[in-house]
Every structure is written in C-alpha cells, then in structure tokens.
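WARN no homologs supplied; continuing
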Amino acid sequence: MLSVETFPTLQEAAGAVGPRAKFLGGGTLVMRAVSYGDQSFEKIVRAKTVDRAIGSHAAGLRVGAGATMADVLAARDLEFLHPVARAIGGPAIRNMATVGGNLFAPNPYGDFAAALLALDASVEMADGRTMPLADLLATRDHVTGLVAGVVFQRPESSAFRFRKISRVKPKGVPVISIAVHLKRGDPRVVFGNMAPVPARSVGAERALANGSDGAAIDAACAACLEGLAPEDDALATEWYRREVAPIHLRRLLEDGGQI
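OK structure emitted
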C-alpha cells in the first residue's frame, strides 16, 4: 500500500526520504511512476513549503529547488536559461516540473541538469551541505537528503548556448542535448543522453580552452566523444548518437543555440 507523508518543511521531509520513499516535488516523474505501477517505493514524502525563489547570491545567482520551468521562464535574471526551460515539455509540464527534480531525471530527460552542469553549478542541500553539481550527478542514486537550491555564476553575453535534438518538434524527448559555456580559459561542454547522467566532454573542452575559432571547433568536434558512453534506447542507437553528436556540436558552436 502506497502511503503519503507531508511535513511542514523541506528539512523535516529530508529525514523521511530513503530507499523506499520518494520525494514529491512537481510530480512529473513520481506520479508517472505511480501510474505505471512502479513497485520500487512504498511511500511518497511531501513538504508544505518549498523554495521557489530566484535571485542574486554571493556566487552569482540562486534558484530554489522548487522553482518550476515556468518560474524560470518568468525570471528576467535567467533569460539565458529560457531556451532550456522552454524545451522541456509543454505548458502543463513546465508548470509542474521543478529545477530540483530535473537533477534526478533519468535519460532521456535532464536537459536542465545538463545546462546547470555546463554553468558549473553547485547544489545546496536541505541540511546545509553544499556540493558541486557534478558530484551530485555522479552519486545521485545513493545521495542522502534533499536539494534545497542551486547556485551558479551568470555567463557572459552569448557565452552560454543550448541545443536539443529531438525527432518531434517542439515537445519531443531529446535524442541528445548539448549545453556549452564558452567561459574564457575554462570552457564547459556538456552532453545529455550520451552517458548515464549529463556528462562533460573533456576532449571538446580541451580543444576550446584557447578559443573557439574554426580550427578549435574542428578539434572540439573531433574529440567530443572522449569519455562519453551513449547507449541504445527506444529513441536512438549508440551508433547513431556517436555519429550525430559531433555534427550538432559544430552547429551549436558555429550558429548558436537553435532548438
């Protein structure tokens, strides 16, 4: 029998989450699992108050984990992330899907997590801990506690780019997603659906470290698969993803973020 427990705060709810208990944020993933009869959990945990605030932070910007994709689209401070939020489902999904929930979304979802990884975001946990988003993604199947918010620096104008490659426009599930932050001397290139979790392309980053001219883009595309491990699924084969990833990375680097 599936039970539901509601707590006044996120901190209290965090103590009730465990291997057999799922936290209910926006519900786009948990409620779908319930509808499909997922037997891996027996309890749903909720919090009466969730942090949806978006604003300035000592590290740059902070977004509460409870902020929805619609909240992101309504925030002027996050204009550079609007293309990412707009690419996630339709209006109904964007009104429910949360930033915190997207960090745990399995393939082929997790576009927003890929974008935040490209921005070198850090995660604030409900118990006060802070960790790099990369560390959370690497251990998210075993992480303890709940995410309270994410913090990251605002990218320079046009330095951040995003591309979603899907077979159905505009709401299709991505075959691949790519987020790029062309930060001087320290670029970030992140692929979604090219590994079990959103992953950095170390080869592409190395090639772009000294600029993004034609030669650097050629080198980045040639090396972009280094360290990635795509898999076959219902959307595409591992072979197909490897073939098209360099093509779409080139288009993103040369033309900007076109979804």
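The mean pLDDT is 93.
OK
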